[in-house]
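Example (one chain per record):
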Amino acid sequence: MKEIGFSNPALKWFLSYLREREIFTEYDGIKSSKENIMSGVPQGSILGPLLYNIYSSDLQNELQKYRILTIQYADDTQLVISCNKHQLEEAYLTIRQAMQDISTWSTKNGLVLNQEKTQILPIYQKNLLHLPLNPPLDLAPFFTSNAKNLGVIFDSKLIWKDHINAILKKAYGVYHRVKQFTDEFVGRNEKKIRYILFNSLLISQISFSISILFPLPSIYTKLLNRYIKVAASLIKTSYVNSKDLKKMKILNAENLIKLSLLKIASQNNEWLVPEWLQIKEKTNCMNLRSNGMPTFYLNLNEWHTLAHNYYSATKFLPNNILSNSKEQYFITSVKKHFISTQES
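Predicted structure:
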């Protein structure tokens, strides 16, 4: 912390926060003797992930030589390597060396690399799905067809089948528990309470990181829409169809995804935009909005990135909505537009 610029008063404060902590075990009313904690940060604390990020910040320096994208969140480290079919051998070599460096760094810093949670997920373009990977024997055990990343299950083909199945399984479980509660404690005509439960407990089950699913294959869109209708029956207390969703001002899955994309795109201040979508002027680009505010540019040549999804979502909007300068009004207008044009 001192090396990255923390002042002495700040260092003393953190030392007092971390030192002289004790731990004990309690079982069936019996407590063990207390032991001093010599390392680590308090579990579940707000400062915990930040302190770990500071502790492991020099790992980025160890991996810079490979010129690969390194993403860290608390104790989770991801390496992103992009290559074509002629560079596979070089990519395998880079992965092997990077994993060895991470293992060495971990040992040096009193940490253990969890081999069971170490995974290699290849993601292909459609025209390369037939390509045999033939990974080296030492790396083959780490290869997987899907991997969970911050609550989202990625698969090699990016069709999101595993993710959709997982969130729907959980969502239907939550729905049945909420329905049992409302049947017993909430009157059929108490629509306001039922709307609150729908938005806070039911639709939230599928809306987390939903923007990344765009464009979603129709088979999975139908599965999400089926859940939305089932969840909306909590409000109507009877069967819900597509026309009912429109009357109830509830977005279907397609428009939920587009709205989520546009919520991010509307935050067109540089410090609110993800690093890979910074405001910048480039050739061969199209601006998303033009209203006197800083222009939000999207690189349409990079079709495989989420930038293309933002542009695609705007195709469904009229110019009078795209020209709105106030973010909240923009989002409200988009939602009303999507509801009014929802398929019956």
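Caption: Strands lie at 22-23, 26-27, 30-31, 35-36, 69-73, 76-80, 146-149, 152-155, 285-287, 297-299.
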